[in-house]
Design a protein that fits this description.
single chain, mainly beta, four-stranded antiparallel β-sheet, 47% strand
């Protein structure tokens, strides 16, 4: 059973940067795809980025294109999300999970019942 642990969140001022890490375990191969998504309580969850475990292709939500970069480090068994030029609207709980599926140009967010603890990102001055 795959398991994911998010880390790296914190408080940062607008325009700052954070690097989130998703520690992956439970896979017997390296062809796993990973997605990052986020949610503010009371709002609809939003897909942020994903990376394919088969060809390395990446997808980014429109709101983070040009600012966020997702990367996979097989040796460390982590999938990181480098977040630059952070904005207050980037605040929320960030989660990672298996998969990289888009529907109508939007990254699919997994069932909330499968979410882990996530890591909190707060962008505020």
């Amino acid at each position: 059973q795959a398991h994911f642990v998010e880390s790296g969140g914190g408080l940062v001022q607008p325009g700052g940067s954070l690097r989130l890490s998703c520690a992956v375990s439970g896979f017997t191969h390296n062809r796993y795809s990973i997605r990052w998504f986020r949610q503010v309580p009371g709002k609809e969850p939003e897909g942020v980025a994903c990376i394919s475990g088969y060809d390395g292709s990446q997808f980014y939500g429109d709101s983070v294109k040009g600012r966020f970069v997702i990367s996979k480090d097989v040796a460390r068994a982590t999938v990181d999300l480098q977040m630059n030029d952070l904005k207050p609207e980037d605040s929320g709980n960030y989660y990672c999970a298996e998969g990289c599926v888009t529907v109508r140009g939007r990254l699919v967010v997994p069932d909330s019942g499968s979410w882990g603890r996530g890591t909190q990102v707060t962008v505020s001055s």
